[in-house]
Amino acid sequence: MLEQARKRTAEFQRRMKDDGISLALLTDESSIAYLAGFWGYLSVEFGRPTFLIVRTEGTPTVLTPLMESEMVSAMTWVDDIRTWEDSGANRWENVLAKVVGDQPGGIAVEKGLLPPIVRNFLDAKYPSSP
Asked: How far, in Å, are 14, 73, 77, 122 from residue 21 at the CA level?
C-alpha cells in the first residue's frame, strides 16, 4: 500500500510540474492518506492541523503534532516528518513557515477543504498566494 502511495505522489508531482505549481500544501485527511499513506490522527477539528507539503522535486514533508509523530512515522513512506507543539516557538505556524520558506511563490491548496485557521495564517503570512 505504501508503494502505491509513493507512486501516486510521484504522479501528483509530475502533474504539479506540468501545471507550473511548485508547492502544494495539503490538509485534507483523505488527500494525505491517498498520497502519504497515513490516517487516524487527531485533526484540525481538534485544533491540531496536519500538513503534507509537496514540491515538484524531492520528497514531501509531513508536519504533524508531536504527539502524533510516532504513529505517523510508522504508517507513512515519507521520511521528512516535522513536529509541532501546542505552545512556544515550535507552534505549527512557525514550523510551517520554516518548511515553506519566506518566498515560496504560489502555494497550491485544496481551497474548498482548507481549514479556516490555516487559511487565515496563509492569508496573513503569504498574501500573494491563492
From this structure: 10, 27, 23, 17
**Partners of 92 in the β-ladder:** none
pLDDT in tens, 92-115: 999 999 999 876 678 999 999 999
Dihedrals phi, psi of 108, to nearest 5 degrees: -80, 135
Q: 80, 60 in Cβ contact below 8 A?
A: yes
Dihedrals φ, ψ of 43, to 5°?
-115, -160
State the Cα–Cα distance between residues 110 and 104, nearest whole angstrom. 17
CB 50 within 8 A of CB 65: yes
- Partners of 51 in the β-ladder: 63
